[in-house]
Amino acid sequence: xxxxxxxxxxxxxxxxxxxxxxxxxxxxxxxxxxxxxxxxxxxxxxxxxxxxxxxxxxxxxxxxxxxxxxxxxxxxxxxxxxxxxxxxxxxxxxxxxxxxxxxxxxxxxxxxxxxxxxxxxxxxxxxxxxxxxxxxxxxxxxxxxxxxxxxxxxxxxxxxxxxxxxxxxxxxxxxxxxxxxxxxxxxxxxxxxxxxxxxxxxxxxxxxxxxxxxxxxxxxxxxxxxxxxxxxxxxxxxxxxxxxxxxxxxxxxxxxxxxxxxxxxxxxxxxxxxxxxxxxxxxxxxxxxxxxxxxxxxxxxxxxxxxxxxxxxxxxxxxxxxxxxxxxxxxxxxxxxxxxxxxxxxxxxxxxxxxxxxxxxxxxxxxxxxxxxxxxxxxxxxxxxxxxxxxxxxxxxxxxxxxxxxxxxxxxxxxxxxxxxxxxxxxxxxxxxxxxxxxxxxxxxxxxxxxxxxxxxxxxxxxxxxxxxxxxxxxxxxxxxxxxxxxxxxxxxxxxxxxxxxxxxxxxxxxxxxxxxxxxxxxxxxxxxxxxxxxxxxxxxxxxxxxxxxxx
Length: 552
Hints:
The chain has about 550 residues and is an alpha+beta fold. It has helices at about 10-15, 55-60, 90-105, 115-120, 145-155, 210-215, 230-240, 245-250, 285, 320-335, 345-355, 375-390, 405-415, 415-425, 445-455, 480-500, 520-525, 525-540, and strands at about 110, 135-140, 160-165, 180-185, 190-195, 200, 220, 255-260, 265-270, 295-305, 305, 310-315, 340-345, 365-375, 400, 430-435, 460-465, 470-480. The chain starts with 10 loop residues before the first helix and ends in a 14-residue tail after the last helix.
């Protein structure tokens, strides 16, 4: 069930950097736990009483006790999924698990405070929210403590939901079956830094931005750059990317090894520390992008790159979205090694001007932003190559900045985009943010068709994205069930069109709750059955982040 989002007026109120902030969402019910509770058509419930927590929790847990624990992988070519559902702990068992965790980790390690539960089950910037919350939040400080939590939850059949930066827009940390939210807030340490090997080992709650600030004196940096609030754990869970992906790749390309706690409390390390290995299965690839459904990453060794000698940022405008997309794809095909190619449509530029967060006024036209990096001569050559292609595709003058402070001003428009859009909401309105990706040859077609659909919708919506690798986003503001239905159709049409173009329903946001319905169409029944088989092998009771990616 989509949850109404409260009005937010400033970016500071939106950024989840104050991890203990009180979001004040509408009252959230804990009753009616169901694997169907988060379908878009589900009816919304709200608690009116002050003492809602325990009686509603009892009803919630009681409603899932009728499900079965049996999992069967049918021996057929299609390897069909089991028709049974997992059975989760009763309220009594959940309380017992909480007590055991407190005994093992200490009284202060766990919270059942109402506001903590709301913060860990509801998000103002997620496109999908449900009427259910975790029953407790636990704050481990080490791999060993996470293993203890998993062992206890496994024994009592209590769902576990990982929580890191809280910046997901697809409901990744929601709790459709209650259970315990595992918040990695206190696991934000650098374990080991090996500048001579160009790698670093960190805990999951390390911020990528703070990491780069801490190590910049070494001449190294971590190049994956998603939303500013993102933390390493969530970045691994969704195989995120960011503006640098066209040059540096996505999260999976920067992982050396992972330490993972499995559903029953076992701890594994995926491999040793060389830059490459052909020893056995690619377990890094298995856990990266699994959204916490196969195991919880508690440590990660990450590759680092050299800070470039020279950098530049540039911006230019175009008359149409097709011109923008044509220019972006031509730049990539001609092999110009740009650091980033970012699209923002005319509506998004209007938003940036209205919010005034960048300190300048922008042309309100479809816009491309570029990053350049390398040697001084290399950057200059690449700028001239881009300038030529921009002109060939009806673009305006290419504004280039090499001064670091002026670069920051130019690039701030791209980094402020999503948060500025959220700040445009009127009180009570919701925001739907989504992403797709297609082969770059199909990008101009999809961008043009999606923009036309967005304009026909008649609602306030914008497009932006990492078009250098065929990935773009839409954010649409709406109010009420009728408009939500309109937005849902618009988004579904775009996603289905992307899949038909041999693309994906999500380039970087992940599946979570919001995009499960597209999984079979995209990967096929056979691949989905293999994924279920892996899930059952590692987590037979479906305890780790249940309800995400696909259902039993």
